[in-house]
Protein: RimJ/RimL family protein N-acetyltransferase
Amino acid sequence: MFTGEKVRLRAFREEDTDRFVEWESDLETRLLMDDGIPFPPQPDKLRSLPETLASGEDAFLFAVETLGGEFIGSLALFDVNWHHRFARIGISIGKPHQGKGYGSDAIRILTRFAFRQMNLRKLKLTVFAFNRRAIRAYQKCGFRVEGILREELYRNGQYHDVLVRGLLRSDFPH
Structure:
């Protein structure tokens, strides 16, 4: 378990699954995170995702919980490249818990873990240009824009940019 100022990261538990499936099935959430066609996901696939990620060496899924012990979201480190020492990250915080600094705290905890314990050199992510809340959280955590994939995503009748962001261990002060 890894603890920050507002949240802690821990292993996924069986009892987290129903809420995880509920949040990941929410259309509004999917439109902010999923670059595929936002069909409703198959619950069985979502239920098996934590176990699937836990079975590999290139992905790690954490449950995010408040310091009071309430499960509020998930955070993944995936596509780990052990040779070049980088990985991608993704986060999902349940709607009732958004905008309270939980996501930023969770990202900082994961970043410390990735750089100090895993000896990674870089973390990277993509974020849709219209996802302002996520962009603010990533900026607070030190992720810099490394590129813009222009008109990469089609949503609601128009094309949107996707931002590529990265954080180097040498830029991480914590």
